[in-house]
Amino acid sequence: MSSKPYNARVVKACEYIAQHMDDELSLNVVSDVAAVSKFHFHRLFAAFTGVSVTRFVQLERFRRASYRLAFEPEKRVIDIALEAGFDSPEAFSRAFKRTFEQSPSEFRQAPRWPEWHQRLTTDYKPQGELPMDIRVVTFEPTKVAKLTHKGDPKNVLATAGKFIQWRKQTGLSPVGSSRTFGIPHSDPNTTPAEDFRWDVCGEIAEDVPANDFGVETAVIPGGRCAVVRHRGSHANMDDTIYHIYRHWLPKNNEEVRDFPCFFHYINFIHEVDECDLLTDIYIPLK
């Protein structure tokens, strides 16, 4: 049997884990999903992902716990620990610190996001669905509060956390009733880390007053856009975006406008599991 069918089985198992993190995820369960004997699956899984099934499950649960800690300060550590499958906050704290070299409380106060990315790296890339329904719409000009991130894209979550604090303190862009956007000014895969720039934006009705956060008023310009809904991990949005550029634009004789693509985040990583994320991707057109 070629490696391709085996790879597909491992991907299927990884996606099952991402969609069932609150269920039992033993080697027996996951190997059954992949339709591979448990006597061989643990080696097959490690060969393709770089970690064991047990460690992969723990890392995925730690990923979710990290978002809870960083972006939901009102959520108790004991509740996060139980959700991650630990019987006590003490056991969770020890395991979390072994993985990230920060205790949950230290991470909550000052997450070290670049190290976090390194610790969570596996050879598996969370999947998302390729676009099926690309539409052309007219996007209305939208006034937003904008906070610009400059530098390593691995620190983007720190900027997002700072913007969340501004939102909560001022109430000028309530997350429940105001749209949230992200605007990457270049491709993080091809841009030197020090030159990368990304704007996190929240819809507003009035201009942003002077503040210590660095948040300022901006406008996302209106005009024709191709839009597609991406379902799943933000880490895999590149596949959706490249599909539009490679296939949809030339097939439909469309040209891009002089403004970056931008994202409308329908929900957020601390609210839902990664597999349930919804993001509308806009490509400005002439």
Automatic annotation (TrEMBL):
Keywords: DNA-binding, Transcription, Transcription regulation
SMART domains the record matches: AraC_E_bind, HTH_ARAC
Record's keyword annotation contains Transcription: yes
Sequence ranges assigned to domain HTH araC/xylS-type in this UniProt record: 11-110
UniProt keyword Nucleotidyltransferase present: no
Pfam families linked: GyrI-like (PF06445), HTH_18 (PF12833)
Gene Ontology molecular-function annotations: DNA-binding transcription factor activity; sequence-specific DNA binding
Gene3D superfamilies: Homeodomain-like (1.10.10.60), Regulatory factor, effector binding domain (3.20.80.10)
Entry protein name: AraC family transcriptional regulator
